[in-house]
Amino acid sequence: MSAPLDIEGPAAPPRANGELVFAEPWESRAFGMAVTLYDAGAFTWPEFQAALIARIAAWEASAERDEPYNYYRLWLAALEDVLTGLCAVSTDEVTTRAQALAQRPPGHDHRDHSDLHDHPH
Fold it and tell me: CA end-to-end span of the chain, whole Å?
């Protein structure tokens, strides 16, 4: 990973004993998407950091915090901001895809390994 992640400050990812911490699988996927796109040259890290800090500041300034603080929700929103700003993806495309993913049942992307034992190889 070549992304210069902050160790401290508002843009620093959650860590435990120096290791990145992901509460749910989608968080690590969101993290990986941003790093992969950065590595591919889609945007500069300062662009992404600025978008992330702006999202965190907006959440902190919000009078009504409907949702509890979730670093990776803000991370994903910052990634969307950067990509829509670069015209790599439209806001409508992001919204449509997010709605489609939200409608998938829990655990949809986890393969049930028990069925592997029921079928001969």
Answer: 36
CA–CA distances in Å: residue 8 to residues 12, 21, 83, 101: 5, 15, 25, 32
Dump pLDDT digits (tens) for 19-73: 999 999 999 999 999 999 999 998 999 999 999 999 999 988 886 666 788 999 9
pTM across the whole model: 0.70
Exposure class string for 84-119: b at 16+ Cβ within 10 A, else e:
eeeeeeeeeebeeeeeeeeeeeeeeeeeeeeeeeee
Question: How far is it, in rounded angstroms, from Cα 72 to Cα 39?
Answer: 19
How far is CA 90 from its chain centroid? 17
Q: Tokens in use for 73?
A: 């929700």
